[in-house]
Amino acid sequence: QVQLVESGGGLVPAGGSLRLSCAASGRTFRDYVMGWFREAPGKEREFVACILWSGRTTYYGDSVKGRFTISRDNAKNTVYLQMSVLKPEDTAVYYCAALERFYSGSTSDKNSYHYWGQGTQVTVSS
């Protein structure tokens, strides 16, 4: 099991940058795939990025490729999302999520993830 707490959200202008953090506690952090999802008002929760156990393999949703970077520090039990060139359409609540290493389904599918944080609001002004 793992508990997740996001931080770092806030208000930023279009074109700006923001770094989100997700602090994890629980059993063997490095055995989990870590993901970021976002949910805008009236829309379904959307895959943003995920990172595998070693930290060397990452995947991104099409809407954020080239702008966002996911990373993890297993020694600190923390996963990060560096967001750059932010757009108003990036406005959403951002959630971190954990997927057990021996999983079924896709790492880009929100239904595959076992644990979720409470979310942090990111608002990008135009």
Fill in the keyword field for this structure.
single chain; 126 residues; mainly beta; 4-stranded antiparallel β-sheet; 11 strands
What do you see in this structure?
The structure is a single chain. This protein is mainly β and 126 residues long. It contains no helices and 11 strands. Strands 2, 4, 5, 6, 9, 10 and 11 form a 7-stranded mixed β-sheet that branches.
Span between N and C termini?
Answer: 39 Å
Query: Spans with pLDDT under 50 lasting ≥5 residues?
Result: none
Helical stretch tally: 0
Q: Give, in order, the helices and strands.
A: EEEEEEEEEEE
Rg, rounded, reads 13 Å
Main sheet attributes: strand count, strand direction, barrel closure: 7 strands, mixed
Average pLDDT across residues?
A: 93
- Portion in strands: over 45%
For the secondary structure, the number of strands is 11
Helix content: under 10%
Structural class: mainly beta
The best one-word shape is globular
Q: Quick summary of this structure?
A:
By secondary structure, the protein is mostly beta strands. It is built from no helices and eleven strands.
